Structures are given as C-alpha cells and as structure tokens.
Amino acid sequence: MENLKSKIEGCIKGAVMGSEIGTVHASRIGQIANGVQLKNALEEKIDLDNIIIQQKYNTWSSSLTPLIQITASAYIKKRGRIVPEDFAAELATDESLADRAVFWYLDLYSAIERLHAGMNPRINGIGACPDGNICTAMAVVGIYHAKDPEYAYIDGIELSGVIQRKPAAEWAALTAAAVAEALNEDCTASKLVKNITEMTFRYCKDTYYEILRNCTKIS
C-alpha cells in the first residue's frame, strides 16, 4: 500500500511538472517547425531556473494544470466514479482555464462555451480540432482506476469526449490506461509499453499505425 501511495504521489507530481514544463516547450514550437529535428528538440535541456520568468512574460500560452485540478475535484465531490456530466459540471463552473484568451487552447474555451449553451456533455467534443490538451487530465482517471487499465480506457474515452473527439479522445484514454497499468505492483517499463501497445492495436488501430509511423521518423 505504501508503494502504491508513493507511485500515486509521483504520478500527480509528474503530471503537474509535465504540464508546466510542456507549456514552456510549446511556446517554442516554431523552432521545431522551422527545421530543428524532433529528436534533438526532445533531448534539449530546459533551464528550470528561468521557467517561471518565461511563463510570466509569455503572453500567448497558459498552463494546463487546472485540468488536473478540475478532474480531481470532480472525483472528490462525487466520492466515486465520475461520468461526463460530472466532469462537465466541474469544467463549466471553473474559471482557471479562462484567465486569458489563448488560441492554443481554443478547444477548451469552445467546449466550455458549448456547455454553457446547454450542449449534452457526451457529444460536446464533436467538431473539435484534435489535440493532446485533454491528456493532461487523464493522470487522475488512471489513478482512480489503478491496476485496471481496461476500465481506465473506457472512462478515458467517455470523459475526454466532453472536450475532444477521436483520435484525441483515444490518445487521452490510452494515457489513462497507461497510468492505471503503471500502478500495478509488478509493472516495469517494458511491460507497460507492451500492454498499452497491445491495447492500442485492439481498440484504435489508426492510432497504433500512427505511432509506428512517428517512431519510424524519429529513429
């Protein structure tokens, strides 16, 4: 139990750190688009001492960490498994994602506005331009379904549909499944990759082949 608690704590910290640091990296996406090789960009070291300064003066990007807080809050209030309606209710009333008009997060703002207009949460993500923003929230879903990646995948698909559509909903669901799988006592990196890759092939073959293509490009 203590080992599981430690893993969960590490998962939450990792999700927050990934959100904050990833935002800074995303602000320099133009460098990658203008010829910097993807492999080198991923290996580039980030100056953590200046990360707060960069965030303060970065006028176009905002952290996605509130998505983690919103999802966790929905679980805490429900005291159990949440459904799209629960997630949507928390998302629609939270102002932390609406502090600045950010084009990069247009999918979130559009989703929130549609919810305010009365859209059914289960189809609210239809028409969204696929991106990985909703994946940020999936660490919490994976933690709730610890050791049960299949259930985490199912709920990941449903909950991400409040904001996104396929294939982004599939990316998010696989993220939740990976976190749930990682919380197994006997989980190793190789087992995690193997199990989630097999799950990807079973449930979303288009995403599976997309991963293969991208891995080929990087290698």
Describe this structure in words.
The chain is 64% helix and 0% strand. It is built from twelve helices and no strands. α6 (84-93) crosses α7 (106-116). Mean pLDDT is 79; it is low at 30-39 and 46-61.
- Percent strand equals under 5%
- How widely separated are the two ends? 39 Å
How many structural units, i.e. domains? 1
* Mean of all residue-level pLDDT scores: 79
Please give the share of residues in helix.
55-70%
Secondary-structure-derived class? mainly alpha
Order of SSEs, N→C?
HHHHHHHHHHHH
What Rg do the Cα atoms give? 17 Å
- Overall outline: globular
Largest sheet: none
Total beta-strand segments: 0
Q: What ranges have pLDDT less than 50 throughout 5 or more consecutive residues? A: 30-39, 46-61
> Can you count the helices?
12
Which SSEs are present, and which pair or pack?
Layout: H1 2-26, H2 29-33, H3 38-43, H4 51-57, H5 65-78, H6 84-93, H7 106-116, H8 138-144, H9 149-160, H10 168-182, H11 189-203, H12 205-218
Helix pairs in contact: 5-6, 5-8, 6-7, 8-9, 8-10, 9-10, 10-11, 11-12
What are the defining features of this structure?
219 residues, mainly alpha, 12 helices, 0% strand
